Inverse folding.
């Protein structure tokens, strides 16, 4: 296992309970939107990659035959299991899984989901290829993640901001990059949409990853000193104060595997 994946395991094992309890991850209209787009059928078998607190798996479970909740981090998976068992989710099983090397046979799943996680993956295209491999013909891949602006320099500045808060962050992608990855993996892009979470508070966001006061101060500096292209994307407000906020942007993209 490479150093980056070990770092992901360590950090998310440490903060697993916070992600289980986080309103950002457990609630939100995006969960309902994912369900609406997938239009799941009650005989489907689904895989939820990087399940985190298990919120996506829990939302889909009543609508499907079975869901496999998969995560690289054992501690996170155990926290998700404890949470979901308390919700009475009997048709969810659990798998310690590397998103880039899925331990499942080809053509196993009708639906693969991954919500707000691919920016942690060392090789995102490999992840998309693996998803395409384990999908049945006509199966769906449904991804939601942070979105980068098309401007390359602004995107890398924002990556630096994200990585300062969470060193396990690898990279966010622009919409055209996601389209390219799905198409290159043999999937037909059937839907893409962008939405924003405006006015996200800096302090709770940083504290969820255990940031020190020094790191939070450096995050504030990056917001204050953001170039115009970055400021246009993040829309920082009250930067440098305890009331600092900025915007998160997300993409939802859905691809379908061809029928042989």
């Amino acid at each position: 296992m490479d150093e980056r994946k070990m770092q992901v395991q360590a950090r998310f094992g440490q903060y697993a309970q916070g992600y289980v309890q986080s309103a950002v991850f457990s609630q939100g209209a995006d969960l309902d939107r994912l369900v609406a787009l997938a239009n799941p059928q009650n005989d489907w078998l689904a895989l939820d990659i990087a399940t985190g607190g298990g919120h996506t798996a829990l939302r889909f479970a009543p609508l499907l035959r079975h869901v496999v909740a998969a995560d690289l981090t054992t501690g996170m998976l155990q926290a998700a299991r404890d949470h979901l068992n308390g919700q009475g989710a009997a048709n969810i099983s659990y798998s310690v899984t590397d998103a880039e090397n899925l331990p499942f046979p080809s053509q196993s799943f009708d639906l693969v989901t991954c919500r707000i996680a691919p920016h942690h993956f060392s090789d995102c295209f490999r992840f998309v290829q693996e998803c395409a491999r384990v999908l049945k013909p006509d199966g769906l891949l449904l991804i939601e993640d942070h979105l980068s602006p098309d401007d390359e320099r602004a995107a890398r500045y924002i990556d630096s901001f994200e990585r300062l808060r969470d060193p396990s962050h690898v990279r966010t992608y622009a919409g055209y990059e996601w389209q390219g990855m799905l198409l290159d993996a043999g999937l037909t892009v059937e839907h893409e949409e962008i939405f924003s979470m405006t006015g996200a508070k800096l302090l709770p966001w940083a504290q969820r990853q255990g940031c020190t006061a020094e790191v939070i101060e450096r995050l504030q500096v990056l917001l204050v000193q953001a170039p115009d292209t970055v400021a246009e994307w993040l829309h920082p407000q009250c930067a440098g104060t305890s009331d600092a906020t900025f915007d998160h942007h997300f993409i939802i993209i859905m691809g379908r595997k061809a029928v042989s």
Q: What stands out?
A: The first helix runs from residue 3 to 14. The chain has one domain: 3-148+169-196+250-257.
